[in-house]
Amino acid sequence: MPGIGLITNPRARTNQKDPARMRRLGYLLGSRGVPEATGSLDDLYRVAEEFRSAGIDILAINGGDGTIGCTVTAFIKVYEAAGTLLPPVAILRGGTMNTTANSLGIKGAPGRLLFEVLDRYHNREPFAVYEREVLKVGDDYGFIFGNGVIHNFLKVYYGTGRPSPGVAAKVLLRGIASAFVGGPFAARLTKRFRAHVTADGQEWAVSDFMSVAAAVVEQIGLGFTPFYRCNERPGAFAILGIHTGALGFVTELPRVWRGRPMRRDKVIDAVVSEVVLESDGGLEYTIDGDTYQGGPLLRLATGPRVRLILGGADPGRSFALPTTAVTV
Known about the structure:
The protein has eleven helices and 19 strands. It is an alpha+beta fold and 328 residues long. The protein has two domains: 153 residues, 3-Layer(aba) Sandwich (Rossmann fold), CATH 3.40.50; 144 residues, Tumour Suppressor Smad4 (Sandwich), CATH 2.60.200. Strands 1, 2, 3, 4, 5, 6, 9, 10, 15, 18 and 19 form an eleven-stranded mixed sheet that branches. The radius of gyration is 20 Å and the shape is globular. 43% of the residues are buried.
């Protein structure tokens, strides 16, 4: 059986704009792998079972951040149920924002990235691999979690019907301008919520938030780097409890852009292994850009370790994360 399993999400916005891309990637893969288009969660779990049975060596994902999160979730559950190790994952930058790939320094078009993986695989050359635990949110897995302002921002962003980095930047600038004049748009984005937060067994003193956000990668999009502590401790993730007001948050954005800590009177900034959120009502949140509606209690924890192939990474960049050369 071929050694590389390729997952493509035909519903990803960039794949909808260029449907021929799926055929090109399948042609490039040729006899060295199996390309599969997954249009639903049922498809995804079916393909995960097939790839596990076939014993693929590498899982390649052509889709956005949400596709990566959903695919990792399905494969972790299928492989864990069978007691087998998840293969290394190659992220092909098939999305609009590609936040996870950007955080890892992965650059290039999907075709070039897949070609690089195929070339190294064919020649049995080592891959640079970033190994770390993913974030478990409820029963799902991913890389970035956020509620409050992050969830509200994404609802407005997706509501434009034409999501792109440029549109995201326009929504952000509109929110910043509104915050400076105390406008309704900023109030809508920064609508507050109340929740009791317990992190590693310690209850936070604050219970009124603009957002609680956590991640195992540094970036959150548009180059902002709020989770600069995500690699500080093995088996843990970075979490922020933002409790300042709209204008107070906006004035901290330059520091977030530079990967610097926000003021301590505006945010709780921690590195933890488990967090429990309890609210009076249901919690709306996002995982890797996909939106979810949950119940009044939500648990975040360190998930299983995955291996991410750093294809297309700039060799001149100094990574502040553990990289290992492995042969698969």
